[in-house]
Structure formats: C-alpha cells, structure tokens
Design goal:
It is a single chain. The chain is 47% helix and 7% strand. The protein has one domain. The chain contains 2 helices and 2 strands. The longest helix has 51 residues.
Length: 121
C-alpha cells in the first residue's frame, strides 16, 4: 500500500509539471499560426493592391478575386470574422476615391507569452 502511494505521488508530481508545459506549447503553436496568417494576409493585400491599383474593401474581396481560398481563421479568437482591419488614409490611398484595407491585426485583446497584446501584431 505504501509503495502504491509513493508511485501515485510521483505520477502526480510529473503530471503537475507536464500540464503547464503542454498548455504553453498550445499557446505557442497558436501564436505561430497567427504570425503566419498575418504574414499571408498582409502579402495578399499588397499583391491585390498592386494588381488592381486599389486596395480591397473587405477581406472577402481577396477570396472573390482568387487571392485566397478562404479568409484565414484567427487562431486566438477561433473566428474568421474577428480580424481588425486598418483602413488606408484617404490622402495616401492608392485610389483616393476608394480607400481600402491597409493592414490586418488580430481581433483578440489577450496578451501573448511575450507580454505584448495580440492586437498590436
């Protein structure tokens, strides 16, 4: 009986160490996916703007025109509609009649493992 209690105590200690590491690895993987999605969206917005001589008015325009298969999901909010869109300034816009999307940011107010808010990425 004492041996069983010792084994259970050792297993409990190992689990208490492993669970936080596992949770951090999940957050790290979500942050990596977020970085890749933001890079892809920003690249595609630039390509669309260069090709069409005007910025897209919505992220769905990138899908409609064939630049993306689908709007990527924000891994932090688990939604494809939570992206924060930064519009062009009308004076510096490529097409001053129709200012469009300039940048995309994460829609979450949470902080990353580095301590910076995801919405600033």
């Amino acid at each position: 009986m004492i041996e069983l209690m010792i084994v259970m105590a050792i297993v409990a200690i190992i689990v208490s160490i492993a669970v936080p590491l596992y949770q951090k690895s999940i957050v790290r993987s979500k942050e990596s996916v977020l970085r890749n999605n933001l890079f892809t969206l920003r690249t595609v917005i630039d390509e669309y703007t260069y090709d069409k001589q005007k910025a897209p008015q919505a992220l769905q325009d990138l899908v409609t025109e064939g630049y993306l298969r689908a709007v990527p999901i924000d891994p932090i909010t688990n939604s494809d509609s939570s992206w924060r869109i930064v519009m062009e300034d009308a004076m510096s816009a490529t097409s001053q009649n129709e200012p469009g999307i300039w940048d995309v940011k994460c829609g979450s107010d949470q902080k990353s493992l580095e301590g910076t808010p995801y919405s600033e990425w």
